[in-house]
Design a protein that fits this description.
Length: about 700
């Protein structure tokens, strides 16, 4: 192969690499797929020129044909991608048929170059023409780059179409590679110029769009230069809309911002322009509008650095005047609302305090955390007996409020489940260790962000006592009515039977049965005695009261009581304190004292002691009878005073019932205190009752 041909082929190979490198560079910059495809197309095309050096080898001929047709396919694919379209589906089968024909014509049929290269070169030429026309029709592109690239593609396409014919003309054949080289250089230069012009156009368009965007936004966009000299380089027209001042006023005087900013913000501005400022935070600024109104701005600043030094400040100033005004109004509304809430809360607290402190029920506020009393009301003080200062900070357990510990445990469990309690019946202790009965209600409340318990206890001790007394009186009244009926219906027949038994017992024929007659008469007398005692329970029986001294009654019957005590081997002791005259029925009081003392003597063991005491306590006059017996069972203590309720083997329980009846007729109180060391019956006469006690000077 002549040197001129080899030189021409090598030059074409190198020159063809130039467009390939240009497209690869542009792909690296823009990342467009069609640029990558075109880059590979020119690269394969440059390699195809090296295959022309081996035309005497069939394998290299086939490789040349395949590489050229693959370049055609890549050119078509890249062009369709450039247009944003899919590649035509019929192109691949067409290129395969053309490739097959070229290989068949060259290798098998051994046809001349003119016949087997025409389809291939025509395909390449047509695609180059099509690509060139596409470049010429591009809009919004630089004119020179578009014309140079488009016409270079068109002329290169014409060159490939005419190549089979021009090679037959010996005079122009040596110049054909030079034409191809020039056209490829034109494509490379045109593509570079085209993209350069496109970059300039895009930059102008972006600048115009940015300017339109900046000038259209409602916020103020600014740029302030610090070095080499301090000056305002840009301010958007929003400055005029927000502050009334034009950007030109800021351009003419770089310290103009200090003239319109509130003096309180001057120190902030000095720090901001000095470069010694935390630019990551929002900077609030108060300005004065040209019309004299106040404008609130929030400035977001981004510093621009050059070699570690701040050279300018760029940022956005947002008008937050409306928001600030609304915030101020909301703040005023919130302040007013808070004042009203505090006032209502104060009123509610006052109402709660009045209701709490003046409530007739026992009330207390208890901390759930430690169980300590936070506050108590006056009813708590008057009923329980502690002063408020004595109980605050202490627990109910420490005050021994609950006589039965299991009751409080039960109530706490119930409270955890229900969150509240309503009218739970409890027993509670007073300071003087008196056991009272109440209905407890409790509710969880929130005080100072902590859970507390509001406890209310309705003291029903007196109500319970009155209910028991009324029930007892009703029972006594019923028994009294029964006694009246028995007196008429039973006592008279018993008297008749007793008389006949005495008469028959005196006859000689019943001498041997006298013991039986005595026993029957004794039992009849006992039945008559019971009927007599029942008759004493009758409510209709009047009592004859007059002013007498209780101590005198006790002293008068003391010898009789002492005789019974000696028989029982029990020591009888009198502990009498001075008492005024009381409005009493003497006989009834003697019966009460005899019954109580005889019961005490029977309950006391031999060698024991029974005490009869009188005293004055809290304007009440006390009569008490104490023994040293084993005490009374708790199941019986509540039923004392009920007929036929007794702890004695042969007792009827009527004696104590008569005592209770007489005491109630005198409008006094009777109750028993008992334990394992003995029992004390206490009778209290009220001085303030005009029907009971005389006025004493």
């Amino acid at each position: 192969m002549p040197f001129e041909v080899v030189y021409s082929l090598i030059s074409s190979t190198l020159v063809t690499l130039v467009p390939s490198l240009v497209y690869f560079f542009l792909y690296y910059q823009e990342r467009q797929r069609y640029l990558l495809i075109w880059g590979y197309m020119w690269l394969i095309n440059s390699l195809a020129y090296t295959l022309l050096l081996f035309l005497n080898n069939a394998f290299f001929i086939i490789l040349l044909i395949v590489s050229l047709m693959f370049c055609c396919y890549l050119l078509a694919w890249g062009t369709c991608s450039f247009l944003g379209k899919k590649i035509f589906p019929w192109l691949l089968p067409a290129f395969i048929l053309i490739t097959f024909w070229c290989i068949l014509a060259e290798v098998v049929l051994k046809l001349p170059y003119f016949f087997y290269m025409i389809p291939e070169l025509f395909s390449i030429g047509a695609l180059l023409l099509y690509t060139g026309f596409i470049y010429l029709k591009l809009e919004n592109m630089g004119l020179f780059g578009k014309l140079l690239t488009g016409w270079s593609f068109i002329l290169l396409g014409i060159y490939n179409i005419l190549n089979p014919f021009t090679n037959l003309v010996q005079s122009i054949a040596p110049w054909l590679p030079l034409i191809s080289i020039l056209l490829k250089i034109g494509i490379a230069l045109g593509t570079i110029i085209l993209h350069f012009e496109k970059g300039i156009i895009d930059l102008k368009r972006s600048k115009a769009n940015y300017k339109a965007l900046v000038e259209g936004v409602p916020d103020i966009i600014f740029s302030y230069s610090l070095h080499p000299e301090a000056k305002t380089t840009y301010i958007s027209p929003a400055m005029t809309r927000i502050t009334g001042y034009s950007p030109q006023e800021f351009y003419c005087k770089h310290t103009f911002l200090f003239d319109i900013v509130d003096k309180k913000n001057h120190a902030t501005l000095n720090q901001l322009f000095s470069g010694k400022y935390d630019y990551s935070k929002v900077t609030p600024i108060i300005c004065t509008h040209k019309n004299g109104s106040t404008v609130y701005l929030e400035i977001y600043i981004s510093p621009i650095y050059d070699h570690g030094k701040i050279i300018s400040l760029e940022g956005v100033a947002r008008n937050v005047t409306t928001r600030k005004v609304m915030e101020e109004k909301l703040r005023q509304i919130e302040t007013e609302k808070r004042k009203r809430m505090n006032l209502n809360l104060q009123l509610a607290e006052d109402r709660f305090k009045k209701a709490f402190y003046s409530s007739p029920n026992i009330m207390a506020v208890i901390s759930i955390q430690d169980g300590k009393l936070i506050d108590v009301n006056k009813s708590f003080e008057s009923t329980i007996g502690y002063r408020r200062e004595e109980v605050l900070g202490k627990t109910l357990k420490r005050l021994n409020f609950y006589p039965k510990k299991r009751d409080i445990v039960k109530l706490l469990r119930k409270l955890r489940k229900q969150e509240q309690l309503q009218n739970e019946k409890i027993q509670f202790n007073t300071k003087s260790d008196n056991i009272c009965i109440g209905l407890l209600s409790a509710e969880k409340i929130l005080l100072t962000d902590k859970d507390h318990l509001l406890v209310a206890v309705n003291d029903i001790t007196k109500l319970e006592y009155y209910e028991r007394e009324m029930a007892h009186i009703d029972r006594l009244h019923l028994i009294g009515q029964m006694a009246s009926s028995i007196n008429h219906e039973v006592r008279n027949p018993l008297t008749t039977v007793r008389g006949f038994l005495q008469m028959l017992g005196g006859k000689n024929q019943y001498v041997n049965d006298k013991n039986y007659f005595r026993l029957m008469i004794s039992e009849l007398d006992r039945a008559t005695s019971i009927i007599a005692e029942l008759l004493l329970l009758s409510k209709e029986k009047p009592i004859e009261r007059k002013y007498i001294n209780l101590n005198n009654i006790i002293e008068n019957i003391y010898p009789l009581l002492q005789a019974d005590a000696i028989i029982k081997k029990v020591d009888l002791v009198l502990e009498l304190q001075p008492l005024p005259d009381l409005y009493l029925d003497r006989k009834a009081m003697i019966q009460v004292i005899l019954n109580l003392v005889r019961n005490a003597l029977e309950a006391s063991p031999g060698g024991g002691k029974v005490s009869i005491a009188t005293s004055v306590q809290n304007e009440e006059f006390i009569l008490s009878v104490s023994d040293q017996g084993s005490g009374i069972d708790s199941t019986v203590i509540e039923k004392l005073g009920t007929p036929f309720i007794t702890t004695k083997e042969n007792g009827t329980g009527l004696g104590l019932a008569i005592c209770y009846s007489i005491v109630h007729q005198h409008r006094a109180k009777i109750y028993a205190n008992t334990n394992n060391n003995g029992t004390t019956f206490i009778i209290k006469f009220n001085k303030e009752n005009k029907n009971i006690v005389s006025d004493i000077n």
